Every structure is written in C-alpha cells, then in structure tokens.
Amino acid sequence: METFEYLHGFGSEFSSEDPRCPDSLPKGQNSPQKCPYGLYAEQLSGTAFTAPRSENKRSWLYRISPSIGHKPFKPFLESNISSNWDEVMPDPSQMRWNPFDFPSEKKDFVEGINTICGTGEPRLKLGLGIHVYSCNVSMKNRAFYNSDGDFLIVPQHGNLRIKTEFGKLTVEPNEICVIQQGMRFQVEISEPSRGYILEVYGRHFTLPDLGPIGANGLANPRDFMTPVACFEDVEEEFEIIAKYQGHLFVCIQEHSPFDVVGWHGNYVPYKYNLENFMVINSVSFDHCDPSIFTVLTCQSDKPGTAIADFVIFPPRWSVQEHTFRPPYYHRNCMSEFMGLIKGKYEAKEGGFLPGGATLHSIMTPHGPDVNCFEKSSQEELKPCRVADSTQSFMFESCLGLAVTKWGAQTSKKLDHDYYKCWKGLKKNFTGPKK
Ligand SMILES: O=C(O)Cc1cc(O)ccc1O
Ligand SMILES: [Fe+2]
To answer: Which parts form a coiled-coil structure per UniProt (predicted)?
Structure first.
C-alpha cells in the first residue's frame, strides 16, 4: 500500500501546504482580500464559534473552487442507514451477530453502510449510530460527508485509502480513523472490505484523562496522524453525498471537492494504529474495569460518563495472582456493543467471530461462557500473554441502544442460539458451614 506523509499530534494546531504551491496559506490573516494563487478561503467550523477555547475546533481551507458551487440536493435512496429507532420492538436479550456478509452486488463505501443499532436524534445532536460497512468497489467521482456527526471507522477486513479535503490517508485493519462532521471524503479499496463505524452526533472524540496514571500512557497524542494537503485540479462531474438528519442526499458539482491547496487549524481527520496503545493493567490481583483500555471518548455532560467510549482489548501480559482473570460476570448501566477485528475474544472463544458483533444492553447480564469459566477457574496462574494476534473492541455508551430492522432481520446474522453459551454454568455452591 502507498505510504503517505502525516502530521503527528492530537488536537494540535496544524498547518499544511501542498508542496506544488508553496506559501499558499495567507500570512498573518485568514481572509485576505485576494488569497495566494487566486484560492478561495473557506472556514470549516466543528464547534460553535463561541465554544470555550479548550474545545473550540475550526480549520481554514484554501481551495480552487468554493464548496458552495453545487446544484441542489436530492434524496439518495440506496441506503440501509437509519436513525429510526422504533423500527422493531426493543429487546433486552443478549445479542450476537455472525460475521456480516460482503455485498453480492456492487456497493461502494457509502452504499455499503448498514445501521445495526443506535439512539438519539441527529437534529438534537445527541445520540449515536453503530454501523457496519461492507463494500466491494471504490467510490468514483463521489464524496461523502456527514452533517449529523463524527465517524470513527474501524476496518476489519481490507485496507481503506481515504481521500479527504485535508489530504490522503490509508487505514488498515488494526488502525482506526476519525472523519469529523462535515469533512468530505472518498474511500478507495483494493478488495472486498468490511468494518465498523461508531457515529456520534454533534460532539467530538477526546483522549481520556489519565488521572493518577500520569502524563503518559494509553493512546499517546503523538501517535495520532493527520494527512497533509494534497489537491487535485479536476473539472469533472462529482457527486457529493450528505448524511443529513439521518437520511442521505446527493448533489452534483462540476469540480473535485479535493481541491484544497493549503489548510490550517485544529479541526482535522486523523488516524491511529492500535498497536501504539500503551496498556495499563493490574500487576497484583483482580480484573480491572475495561475503561483502562479507552482509546478515545466522547463525553456527555455528566462527569466521567460517555456518550460513547472506544475501548480495545489489546494483546498484553496477564499476571494477576489468586484472580479469575477473564472479564467478570456483569450487569452494566451502560450499553456494550463489541466487535472483533481479528483472533478470539478471551471471554468467548467460540461463536464471536471476526466481522461479527455482540450487544449487551443496559442491565442485561453477560460474561464469560461456560468453557471460559471452567478453564479460568482451574488454570495455573502463571504470567501469560492474552489476546496475542487478537483485537476486539467495545463501543460503550451511557445511552440505551435500539436495534434497527436491518440489524434484527434484514442482515439475517442474528444468532438466536447465543444464550446457549451460558447454558451449563453449574451450581458450585458448597452449602452453608456445617
Ligand atoms: O462484556 C464484556 O465482555 C466487556 C467487558 C470486559 C471486561 O474486561 C470487563 C467488563 C466488561 O464489560
Ligand atoms: Fe460487560
């Protein structure tokens, strides 16, 4: 795969000029009467103008043609994207999906997005959507943007080559990327490709606070990578597809949207390689809560409570003494959606497969399957590697999630036998002291 150049950092003020046009960024001001090279200046605001400085996000793009040069939007109907959370009756059961299919007809990244579950209201900018994408052709003369929120994209199979207004990036399985609200992008693939998307409405991802961990650890800011400016000057018909209030719309313009010659700001797309995650865990006893594995969080207004956390279960050493080492049995006031990028998840080595998913809804009991419980209650507690060449992840939310019709029925992937993995958990009670 091609290697592109990147800028490093999280939340930084970046600036980038396509080397073919040096000094394309205006000096000392954002909106000169005439921009260098005859470019148009355009601001992209990712927060309210008046958001506190610590949260304020915006970038300035200097482009060949302004984004406004397009015809009116029309509905784009070929889509399984939904934000109608009343399509099927709520169901608190533990849910597991077999790996989602690659498409049988030609589908590009936008056409291949299917919503599994979610909650909230894009118009109120509160809530989230969880989607799988499954595609077999590249987007051609077509760009996509989301006016509802940010996309955190988790490839499971196939490398993505993503062209954005800010430049190009490649994202392969075990890497993730975030394309924020409004940013136009095009996805090229080289084989049938599949992955997961966490969409958060109206808020942005941040790095979790580290508290007593100190200044370093978990996902380090320097490992986040943002593309560099790279323009194309193409006068051809382009379709711009917008996700707006839960529906897709398309409009036509006569020039490439990837015509940004220089840009600066702190509102940017970025990628991160999950291998760079610095794992912190118990080195004495007991199983820590999985929040220790939070890569990115999208916080609600309630302190410490996430609209969505992106949590991974990375390869690591397990050393805890006199401890049941796998995840504990659990009922949670949060919703837990899990996916598997590769390998096996330690709490369930059978049934939960790469490209599949599970959903454990609010207060629904879940935890290790029978085999895992039996094995881990008996095993000798030597230091050992867990999750080697494995990567699973969780989207955890304080909100209640509803499954869509696609998730419950159309996909035909719901495994109605999931509950059986806990059948046979024996009664081991030894009775009161005699
Ligand atoms: O349900 C799960 O498998 C996720 C999870 C993992 C863990 O290590 C502890 C708690 C938890 O909910
Ligand atoms: Fe859990």
So the answer is: none
Q: Which residues line ligand 1 (CB under 6 A)?
A: 290, 327, 330, 336, 347, 360, 366, 394
Pair of tokens at residue 6: 């990147």
Q: How far apart are CA 378 and CA 410, in angstroms?
A: 42
Instruction: Mention every residue, 6+ apart, whose C-beta is less than 8 A from residue 210.
Output: 216, 217, 218
Known binder of ligand: residue 345?
yes
**Two structure tokens written together for 87:** 């399509």
Residue 96 CA, ligand 2 centroid: distance in Å: 14
| Closest CA relative to residue 294, chosen from 175, 171, 206 | 206
Ligand found nearest the CA of 320: 1
Pick from 294, 336, 352, 422 the residue to mutate for probing ligand 1's pocket: most ligand atoms within 8 Å of its CB: 336
Domain membership flag for residue 330:
yes
Backbone angles phi, psi at 309, to 5 degrees: -105, 140
Query: Based on C-alpha coordinates, what's the Rg of the chain?
Result: 23
Domain count, the chain: 1
What ligand has the least distance to the C-alpha of 358?
1
Q: Does residue 364 lie in a domain region?
A: yes
- Report the b/e string of 84-103 with b at 16+ CB within 10 A: ebebeeeeeebbbbbbbebb
For residue range 293-332, list pLDDT tens digits in order. 999 999 999 999 999 999 999 999 999 999 999 999 999 9
Is residue 264 included in any domain, yes or no?
no
CATH number at residue 379: 2.60.120.10
Q: Which domain holds residue 343?
A: 277-415
Interface ipTM: 0.98
Q: Which of 250, 253, 208 is nearest to 234 (CA)?
A: 253
Q: Report the alpha-carbon distance of residue 420 to residue 177 in Å, rounded.
A: 35
349's tokens: 């080595």
- Could you tell me how many helices (H) and strands (E) the chain has, helices first? 2, 28
| Distance from Cα 327 to the centre of ligand 1, integer Å | 5
Which residue, among 359, 334, 335, has the nearest Cα to 411 in the 3D structure? 359
Nearest CA residue ID for atom 8, ligand 1: 327
According to DSSP, residue 317 is labeled: E
Total Cβ atoms within 10 A of residue 163: 21
Residue 40 annotated as lining a ligand binding site? no
Q: Is residue 196 part of a domain?
A: no
* CA separation for the pair 79, 75 (Å, rounded): 11
Question: Number of C-alpha atoms within 13 angstroms, CB side, residue 389?
Answer: 1
Separation of CA 151 and ligand 2 centre (Å): 23
